[in-house]
């Protein structure tokens, strides 16, 4: 029994250290950029020795890979929660997902800076591209499905679910960029109003203003 408790404690400590280092990595990337961030920077930010970083991740590449996986998994968890907790209708769910993308828990400048840092490297880093593509595929499939349901329900003409889901993703990505580069000008409420107006223009019966 005592041995099991010790193993559980060691596992918890290991996970705590790994998360501590991932959090420190995101802070460093947001502040210094990916190329300028070193394992020493991460160790200093976390208040740990560089040996601890090497023990848990072995290399900077492994640390960055796990940081991106953490971001993708965190977003997927929030996305799934918003989808499941929203109202039963397709319009309710679509609106909840759009609202999530502009919420403080997702549209956080530090996290957005890290996302863009990784996105900037996907061309030369296949593993980054793979992680991002899987995340995007999950998002796109659900949003596209919801748009298809709304088109069928409202008998909307001359529009496609693919075009609408692509436009919505482009809108929210653009708003993330605006928040990152012009934080003083960016207004979260106005951004949501813009999304609502677009949804109304496409699905007027489902999104009345």
Q: Can you offer a commentary on this structure?
A:
With 209 residues, the protein is mainly α. It folds into two domains: 1-58, Homeodomain-like (Arc Repressor Mutant, subunit A, Orthogonal Bundle), CATH 1.10.10; 61-209, Tetracycline Repressor, domain 2 (Orthogonal Bundle). The chain is built from nine helices and no strands. α2 crosses α3 (50-57). The longest helix has 31 residues, at 2-32. It is elongated, with a radius of gyration of 20 Å. Mean pLDDT is 92; it is low at 4-9.
Main attributes of the structure:
single chain, Arc Repressor Mutant, subunit A, 209 residues, mainly alpha, Tetracycline Repressor, domain 2, 2 domains
Domain count, please report it.
2
Q: Could you give the order of the helices and strands?
A: HHHHHHHHH
Query: What fraction strand?
Result: under 5%
Treating each run of at least 4 consecutive H or I residues as one helix, how many helices? 9
CATH architecture grouping of the largest domain: Orthogonal Bundle
Report the structural category: mainly alpha
- CATH class assignment of the largest domain: Mainly Alpha
Number of beta strands = 0
Q: What low-confidence regions span 5 or more consecutive residues with pLDDT below 50?
A: 4-9
Radius of gyration: 20 Å
CATH topology annotation of the largest domain: Tetracycline Repressor, domain 2
Q: Main β-sheet: number of strands, strand sense, barrel status? A: none
Percent range for helical residues?
over 70%
The CA-CA distance between the termini, in Å, is 61 Å
Shape: elongated
Mean pLDDT across the residues is 92
